[in-house]
Amino acid sequence: MKYVRMPIEIESPEQMGYSSIECNLTESSFKDMTFGEFNLDLKDLVLCYGDHLGLSPLRKIIAEEYGLKADDCLLSVGAASALFIISTSLLNEGDHLIVVKPNYGTNIETPKAMGIEMDFLNISFENGFKLSIDEIRKKIKPSTKLISLTQPHNPTGVMLSESEIREVVKICEEKKIYFLLDETYREMTFKGMTPLAATLSPYCISVSSLSKTYGLPGIRLGWILTKNPKLQELFLAAKEQIFICHSLLDETVALHFYEKMRTKRLEQNLKKIKEHFLIVKSWIESEKRMEWVEPSGGVVCFPRFKKEAGINTEKFYQILNQDFKTYVGPGHWFEMPKEFMRIGYGWPTTKELEKGLKNISLTLDRLAKH
């Protein structure tokens, strides 16, 4: 494995220090919860090794939401470790991967570190970040083992339709290729959720977590869902060699959240997300130097400077960060030009979001004067 640190991690606010940032528009999740909100007494919790698959009642409640069984669910340390387990379990030297780009780093960087042959499905602004099913077919080789997509897409917030997902499933069944759908943002959609991929075929694998929609990245709780028992046994073997089992503290907190808090929290979060989305949409419509492909879900969007605006990107980020103490996710986090930026609108308060967007415009104003 040839590990290389990703820019999105090196330049993340938690690494740079939250105290230096006034308007944090980099985050790709909802606002973090505090443990005090749980009113949970854990003094009698026995801190032993847990079930290697994960806490059984928690796996059951997650799986049954989609009509699956507890054995179809494997708990992981966030979605990131789930993606790592899948890549290192299914891909070997000489294998071929088809993966959408831009993307969350782990979906690309782990196979890259393994030396896996990759073909990218490069989605473009000009085409509305729309995925081409025909391109998927054309890129398939005899050595193709996995197709990796995200829904809703990070960083653009664009979604696949149900018919597109089912078409990819059909292709995978025909070619005996596994289909990984990273569904971390699944609940945060504006036009209704598509079917969970794992429910559609034994060739499908769904990954998600409590980090993004619920603001619980600190308990590091994610999962892999698949109806394929052979795959689950393989993923369990990988998990046992990496970290044996999950933290019982994390799993117990997650179970309490699912049983007592999740429904109400989801309703509250979705309401706030929609309010913040409308704030960003209004700002984009008024900011004539920028353009976007309007997202259909998630809490991020991926606008860019218009070419005719003639923006010096290096000076832009320097002024925005240093003078206005406002941060966004620059395009190079996703191996895209710095004309693009990921703006997260779920994590900041309404006041911080409005101020951060205004600061972007003020930075553009200052550049126009020079």
| Topology pattern, helix = H, strand = E | HHEHEHEHEHEHEEEHHEEEHEEEH
Shape: globular
Largest sheet, in brief, is: 7 strands, mixed
The parts where pLDDT drops under 50 for at least 5 residues are none
The percentage helix is 25-40%
Beta-strand proportion: 5-15%
Characterization of the model:
This protein has 370 residues and is of the alpha/beta class. The chain folds into 2 domains: 7-31 and 262-368, Aspartate Aminotransferase, domain 1; 47-260, Aspartate Aminotransferase, domain 2 (3-Layer(aba) Sandwich), CATH 3.40.640.10. Helices cover 38% and strands 15% of the residues. The protein is built from 11 helices and 14 strands. The protein has helices at residues 7-10, 13-16, 56-64, 78-90, 106-114, 133-139, 162-175, 229-242, 248-286, 313-322, 350-368, and strands at 23-24, 73-76, 96-101, 117-122, 144-150, 178-182, 204-209, 222-225, 290-291, 300-301, 304-305, 326-327, 329-330, 341-344. The strands form 4 sheets. Strands 2-8-7-6-5-3-4 form a 7-stranded mixed beta sheet, with helices on both faces. A 3-stranded antiparallel beta sheet has the order 10-14-13, with no helix packed on it. Helix 3 runs parallel beside helix 9, helix 4 packs parallel to helix 5 (106-114) and helix 10 (313-322) crosses helix 11 (350-368). It starts with 6 loop residues before the first helix and ends with a helix. The model has no long low-confidence stretch (mean pLDDT 94).
